[in-house]
Write a structure and sequence with these properties.
The chain has 10 helices and 10 strands. It has helices at about 5-10, 10-20, 75-80, 80-90, 110-120, 175-180, 210-225, 230-245, 255-265, 270-285; strands spanning about 25-30, 35, 95, 105-110, 125-130, 135-140, 145-150, 150-155, 160, 170. The longest helix has 16 residues, at about 210-225. Mean pLDDT is about 75; it is low at about 5-10, about 50-60 and about 185-205. Strands 4, 5, 6, 7, 8 and 10 form a 6-stranded mixed sheet that branches. Strands 2-1-3-9 form a 4-stranded antiparallel sheet. About 35% of the residues lie in helices and about 15% in strands.
């Protein structure tokens, strides 16, 4: 049986998914509320870390699709498999992994954001959403939320809802969009000022104020998070705890240092809320 025949006989959302997969666009089912189906118990809260290095889309070694964007696949055999059959029956929509397809979605969430884009960005393929528009460019880059009011960038390690082919001609991603991702996202900001905690007992000059000492500690923490191949959520918490234990009681940590740690965690799939919770829990555990 040829693939076109398989596609024609597929019901509903699976039919859409197979059509996209035939164009090498990795797809996954979404349940009501535009969210992926829940992780299996083995991988709850991304405990297993997903696929090695989380660099490519695809399911982890579990009986059901896990990890949101990382479950996306363009393999029709997987899409039609018994493990996915029930998900397609329950699915409310189809999503795709833009980065896996070599695409960047500028998600404009309201009319003000759309107006800004029309004044600022070069035209490209556009897709209407329930509240705004998706502007789709060729390319790939890291995904960043809230690069400005009502604007998210979705590409690698993210998913976007499939809302149709859109209109217009797709163009290459402009430097304007890449520059947006270089700005510190507001969702990553853990505090509005430098972190202040009790000084060390005994007083004296804080050794952590030596720039090289502090920089080495932050760099090692970033590396530990980035290289985590499993238990990412737990690794982030333990790393935050270690940083605060070593550098937190002298007041030398700033927003820039904490922002670097949050950014490293988000690259590994942690959400901004999870980062904030982990940081707060670490401070509480240390009595800060």
């Amino acid at each position: 049986m040829t693939q076109p025949t398989l596609i024609r006989r597929a019901p509903g959302h699976l039919h859409t998914a197979l059509n996209l997969a035939a164009r090498t666009i990795p797809v996954l089912p979404l349940r009501a509320g535009k969210v992926p189906f829940g992780n299996c118990s083995v991988c709850r809260d991304n405990a297993c870390g997903g696929r090695p290095n989380m660099k490519t889309p695809g399911p982890c070694h579990c009986p059901r699709p896990c990890h949101g964007w990382a479950a996306a696949t363009s393999d029709p055999t997987v899409l039609r498999s018994r493990e996915w059959e029930g998900l397609w029956r329950e699915a409310a929509a189809v999503a795709y992994h833009p980065g896996g397809a070599g695409l960047i979605v500028v998600d404009l969430d309201d009319t003000d954001a759309v107006t800004w884009a029309r004044r600022t960005l070069p035209p490209t393929k556009t897709v209407l959403t329930t509240r705004g528009e998706h502007w789709i460019y060729r390319g790939a880059m890291r995904s960043v939320n809230a690069v400005r009011a009502g604007v998210d960038i979705k590409s690698t390690m993210a998913y976007a809802r499939w809302l149709g082919p859109g209109t217009g001609t797709m163009t290459d991603v402009p430097d304007t969009v890449r520059a947006l991702a270089m700005k510190k996202p507001s969702t990553v900001r853990p505090a509005s000022r430098a972190i202040t905690v009790p000084t060390q007992v005994g007083g004296g000059e804080c050794r952590h104020r030596t720039p090289a000492y502090l920089e080495r500690g932050i760099a090692m923490a970033e590396q530990r998070i980035t290289q985590a191949s499993s238990a990412v959520h737990a690794t982030v918490y333990r790393t935050f705890l270690a940083v605060l234990s070593a550098h937190g009681r002298c007041g030398c940590l700033t927003d820039a240092h904490v922002g670097r740690l949050f950014a490293a965690a988000q690259v590994r799939g942690e959400g901004a809320r999870h980062c904030t919770d982990a940081w707060t829990n670490a401070r509480t555990a240390l009595g800060m």
